[in-house]
Design brief:
The chain starts with 21 loop residues before the first helix and ends with a helix. It has two helices and five strands, in the order H-E-E-E-E-E-H. The protein has 114 residues and is an alpha+beta fold. The chain has one domain. Helix 1 packs parallel to helix 2. It has a five-stranded antiparallel sheet with strand order 1-2-3-4-5. The longest helix has 16 residues.
Length: 114
C-alpha cells in the first residue's frame, strides 16, 4: 500500500517510486534533530525517485548537501540498501540496517558536543 502522490505531470507513478517508510524517517529525523540542536545541520531535502530515495542534509539551504542518506532497495542483497555519502560523493558507510549505517554520522555528533 503506497500513499505517495507525485506532482502533476512529473515523475513516475507512485508504485514505481522508492520512498522512505515512516519508521525509517523516524530514525533519520531523530538524528537530524540532534544534529540541529548541536548546531551542525540546518536544512534537509527528501527526493523519491524510481531507484533511490535520498535524504540530503545541508548546513545552509543554498549549499550542496553535507551528507546524503540513500535507500536503494535493488542493492538489498549485495551491499545493503542503505548508504551514507559525504559531500565529495564518497560512500562513508553501507549496510542493510539503517541505524547501523547512521552511526557514522552519530560519531560526528559526539565530537561536536565535546
Amino acid at each position: 500500500m503506497n500513499s505517495l502522490t507525485p506532482f502533476p505531470g512529473r515523475g513516475a507513478p507512485p508504485d514505481e517510486v522508492v520512498a522512505f517508510q515512516r519508521n525509517e524517517l523516524n530514525v533519520i529525523l531523530s538524528l537530524y534533530g540532534r544534529m540541529v540542536a548541536a548546531g551542525e545541520w540546518r536544512d534537509y531535502g527528501i527526493s523519491s525517485l524510481r531507484e533511490v530515495a535520498v535524504f540530503s542534509v545541508f548546513r545552509r539551504t543554498a549549499e550542496t548537501p553535507l551528507y546524503r542518506i540513500e535507500k536503494r532497495p535493488k542493492l538489498r542483497g549485495r551491499q545493503g540498501q542503505y548508504a551514507v555519502f559525504g559531500m565529495d560523493g564518497q560512500a562513508l558507510k553501507r549496510g542493510s540496517d539503517l541505524r547501523t549505517v547512521l552511526r557514522v554520522l552519530e560519531r560526528k555528533l559526539i565530537r561536536a558536543v565535546e
